[in-house]
Amino acid sequence: MGLLPLEFSDCLSDSPYFRENIHAHERELENTSQQIKSMIKECKDLLAAARTLSKAQRNFSSTLMRFKFECIGNTQTDDEVVIAASLKEFGKLISAIEDERDRMLERAYDQFILPLETF
């Protein structure tokens, strides 16, 4: 149900109807304010979780890039060389993705949370 419009000419008579209507508008404003605060909190929690995920992804990327097979004999087999190179390349891709995620997270506060807090 929508709110009834406030007729400011009714404020002169200060009727119980007008007062109840004002209280309904105040309750709705308070409800909206609480929802915005909840949205801000959830967004901050989400950004914190994204930063934690990014850190874990970077650690995994680093592990992939440092991966080396232990050789039996003097040299690695062709398959071992290919696998190690593939893991290193995959680690670089993950790192590039995390660089973009960091840029997105840096802007998220200024472009989403700050306007909500200002509102």
UniProtKB/TrEMBL annotation:
InterPro entries for the chain: AH/BAR_dom_sf, BAR_dom, GRAF_fam
Boundaries of every BAR domain copy: 6-119
- Alphabetized UniProt keyword annotations: Coiled coil
Ranges in coiled-coil conformation: 22-49
Nucleotide-binding in keyword set: no
Instruction: Give the signal sequence positions.
Output: none
- Show the Pfam families listed in the entry: BAR_3
Asked if Transcription is a keyword of the record, the answer is no
Annotated SUPFAM superfamilies: BAR/IMD domain-like
Name by which UniProt lists this protein: Rho GTPase-activating protein 26-like
Species name:
Priapulus caudatus
